[in-house]
Design a protein that fits this description.
It contains six helices and six strands, in the order H-E-H-E-H-E-H-E-E-H-H-E. Helix 2 (27-35) links the parallel strand 1 and strand 2. The chain has a two-stranded parallel ribbon. A two-stranded parallel sheet has the order 3-6. It has a two-stranded antiparallel sheet with strand order 4-5. Helix 1 (3-12) packs across helix 2 and helix 3 packs across helix 6 (106-120). The protein has helices at residues 3-12, 27-35, 54-66, 75-82, 97-100, 106-120; strands spanning 19-21, 44-46, 69-70, 86-89, 92-95, 130-131. With 132 residues, it is an alpha/beta fold.
Length: 132
């Protein structure tokens, strides 16, 4: 199932708050989402990567500590988080592919994007507990 069809399915079930993407090179994805009926700045949100994800990383740490972010025990997410390497850069922190070596980071980065989206676009009718 491609990402647009998956987003459409989630949206049809009333669970899609929005789609958070790295804003670079996403034209084809935005077009596919538009064709699936998910369009507009309120639904598709560019989340800057690199040091600009510091807030999402710190939010993830705090929410894991207070229990409002929980890990579902999925082996892929456990593996990618276990391979995370954090680099302090001034007041920011970075989690980069370079720091993680050849380890796959996509699921972890997707979680950070989702956290960034929920922090910038809160939705009062949904519970404030996140599962990754």
């Amino acid at each position: 199932m491609d990402i647009a069809k998956l987003a459409q399915y989630i949206d049809e079930n009333g669970l899609l708050r929005g789609v958070a993407l790295d804003p670079y090179g996403i034209g084809a994805i935005v077009d596919a989402l538009d064709e699936a009926g998910i369009a507009g700045r309120d639904r598709i949100v560019g989340i800057s990567q690199g040091w600009k994800l510091t807030g999402a990383v710190k939010t993830a740490e705090r929410k894991l500590a207070d229990g409002t972010l929980r890990h579902r025990g999925q082996s892929l997410m456990a593996w990618t988080v276990g391979n995370a390497r954090v680099e302090p850069k001034g007041n920011a922190i970075l989690v980069t592919k370079q720091a993680s070596g050849s380890a796959k980071t996509d699921p972890r980065m997707a979680a950070f994007n989702a956290i960034a989206l929920t922090v910038t676009k809160p939705h009062s009718s949904q519970p404030n507990i996140f599962w990754i």
